């Protein structure tokens, strides 16, 4: 492939390396120039373009991607048509995505122009999930390189989706006076949800006292009628001879491993009675959050037989998200200091429905709305208050004169709320544990309301999302923990953080603050109805 600047007069058949837009012409990257294109470019005064010409044996980007994708066995995978040198691979079934890292590394080292990126090895997937993407970087590559890369994938099972198979599952739960029956009921419901993607079902539950003899008999009976036995102990396993491992041996089984380098999930027990796997679940498996139990369960449901070698190899990547309700957080340093939570007041919007007036300059009880909202933030006593400005920024700044706040100018405010969120979060700094996001056009949110949200966030250890509600219906403000910041910095368009709240997988704590959670002022009528006086 020859890359470089090409005279338009001799560019017929060349492929544009960069798009060109001139009057009457819009030619995208990769476009093969026709004579009409060349004539149009010359007429517009364009003398040269950056383009590529294919040499003998070269494949264009889509052909190369298709050749490589054709080397991957299609079992339980679907492939998108090639476009701009990319083909995406999706799971065709619920199952376990398995990748051979050594083979993927060999593939990616054939040539920098040829790449494949995948999900982590042994990730659980749902039908339709993207599991990998093939991307040819330039507009064309040498055919022999594409064939060499394809040969790597053809010579090994570099990636695949192992579909889950339905299993009959027996549940044994042990009882102690300290364990409420309601907790055991919830555990069963969560377990049924975990089994649902594989089509597996609980055939029954046996509850027995937390003693080895009774647990052993329950395991023996469950193993006789099921493909898998799960044991939830009322007390955590602390030794290889504790109740659950001792019961597996007493049932005629073998204990293969006690413990795992995954947190949460350290206290898992894996054994077998005959050919039937037995998992002694760690206490964290009573939570819906991902933990080491999920990893072992998924492998078994996908037909694998994990043992000590597999379990002891799970340490890298085994540090999973903290569970907010854990009484002893792993990071004791964080527990020794108060949380640092900032307030972020969004005051950059264009107020497009205000017919030229600025809603944030409207007076409420003699104060501009933006000052009223910012003073509410300050009254809640966060670690600091940042105000994001944009539209009519100087007037907003003037209204905030004398307040101890940091102003963050958003030059891209016209592109939507996401830009203000990004600008504000980017200015928070490394020591911030969370941020309460406030909309400056909500006149009835008080400092006391915001303080209640911050207190709820602290009570959750700084790991939950806290949102204001009115009558149980979600509203604003909302407190977001630091773990959501990376997702916020990826937002685009006129959107807020709602999708992040709903998809983060974190606990959500709702705090009732009444009608204030829903009252914002986007029109002149709304300003007046809320008790404001319109100004400029």
UniProtKB/TrEMBL annotation:
GO molecular function annotation: kinase activity
Domain MoaB/Mog, first and last residues per copy: 170-302
Origin: domain of life: Bacteria
SMART domains named among the record's database cross-references: MoCF_biosynth
Family matches, as CDD domains: GT_2_like_f, MoeA_like
Keywords: Kinase, Magnesium, Transferase
InterPro entries, per database record: Bifunc_Mopterin-bd, MoaB/Mog-like_dom_sf, MoaB/Mog_dom, MobA-like_NTP_Trfase, Nucleotide-diphossugar_trans
Pfam families: MoCF_biosynth, NTP_transf_3
Name of the protein this chain belongs to: 4-diphosphocytidyl-2C-methyl-D-erythritol kinase
Species assigned in the record: Shinella yambaruensis
Lineage: Bacteria, Pseudomonadati, Pseudomonadota, Alphaproteobacteria, Hyphomicrobiales
């Amino acid at each position: 492939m020859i890359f470089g600047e090409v005279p338009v007069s001799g560019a017929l058949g060349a492929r544009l390396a960069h798009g060109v837009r001139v009057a009457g012409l819009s030619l995208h990257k990769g476009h093969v120039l026709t004579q009409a294109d060349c004539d149009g470019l010359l007429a517009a005064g364009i003398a040269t373009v950056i383009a590529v010409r294919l040499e003998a044996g070269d494949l264009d980007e889509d052909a190369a991607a298709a050749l490589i994708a054709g080397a991957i066995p299609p079992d339980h995978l679907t492939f998108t048509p090639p476009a701009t040198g990319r083909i995406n691979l999706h799971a065709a079934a619920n199952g376990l995505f398995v990748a051979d890292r050594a083979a993927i590394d060999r593939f990616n080292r054939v040539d920098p122009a040829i790449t494949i990126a995948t999900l982590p090895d042994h990730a659980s997937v749902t039908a339709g999930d993207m599991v990998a993407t093939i991307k040819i970087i330039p507009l064309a590559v040498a055919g022999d390189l594409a064939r060499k890369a394809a040969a790597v994938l053809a010579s090994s099972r570099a990636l695949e989706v192992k579909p889950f198979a339905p299993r009959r599952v027996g549940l044994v739960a042990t009882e102690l006076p300290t364990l409420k029956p309601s907790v055991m009921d919830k555990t069963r419901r969560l377990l049924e949800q975990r089994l649902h993607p594989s089509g597996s079902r609980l055939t029954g539950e046996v509850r027995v006292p937390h003693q080895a003899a009774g647990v052993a008999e329950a395991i023996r009976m469950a193993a006789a009628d099921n493909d898998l036995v799960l044991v939830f102990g009322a007390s955590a396993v602390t030794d290889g001879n504790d109740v659950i491992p001792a019961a597996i041996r007493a049932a005629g089984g073998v204990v293969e491993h006690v413990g795992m380098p995954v947190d949460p999930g350290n206290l898992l027990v894996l054994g077998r009675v005959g050919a039937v796997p037995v998992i002694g679940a760690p206490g964290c498996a009573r939570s819906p959050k991902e933990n080491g139990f999920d990893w072992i369960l998924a492998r078994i449901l996908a037909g694998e037989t994990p043992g000590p070698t597999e379990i002891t190899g799970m340490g890298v990547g085994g540090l999973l998200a903290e569970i907010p309700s854990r009484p002893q957080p792993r990071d004791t340093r964080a527990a020794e200091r108060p949380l640092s939570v900032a307030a972020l007041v969004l005051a950059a919007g264009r107020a497009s429905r205000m017919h030229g007036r600025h809603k944030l300059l409207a007076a409420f009880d003699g104060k501009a709305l933006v000052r009223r909202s910012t003073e509410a933030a300050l009254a809640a006593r966060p670690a600091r208050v940042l105000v994001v400005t944009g539209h009519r920024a100087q007037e907003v700044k003037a209204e905030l004169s004398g307040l101890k706040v940091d102003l963050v100018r958003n030059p891209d405010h016209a592109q939507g709320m996401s830009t203000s969120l990004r600008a504000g979060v980017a200015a928070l700094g490394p020591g911030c544990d969370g941020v309460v996001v406030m909309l400056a056009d909500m006149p009835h949110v008080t400092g006391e309301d915001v303080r209640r949200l911050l207190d709820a966030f602290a009570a959750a250890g700084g790991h939950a999302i806290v949102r204001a509600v009115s009558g149980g219906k979600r509203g604003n403000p909302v407190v977001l923990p630091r773990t959501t910041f990376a997702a916020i910095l990826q937002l685009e368009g006129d959107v807020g953080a709602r999708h992040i709240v709903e998809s983060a997988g974190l606990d959500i704590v709702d705090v009732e603050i009444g009608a204030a959670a829903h009252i914002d002022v986007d029109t002149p009528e709304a300003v007046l109805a809320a008790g404001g006086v319109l100004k400029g």
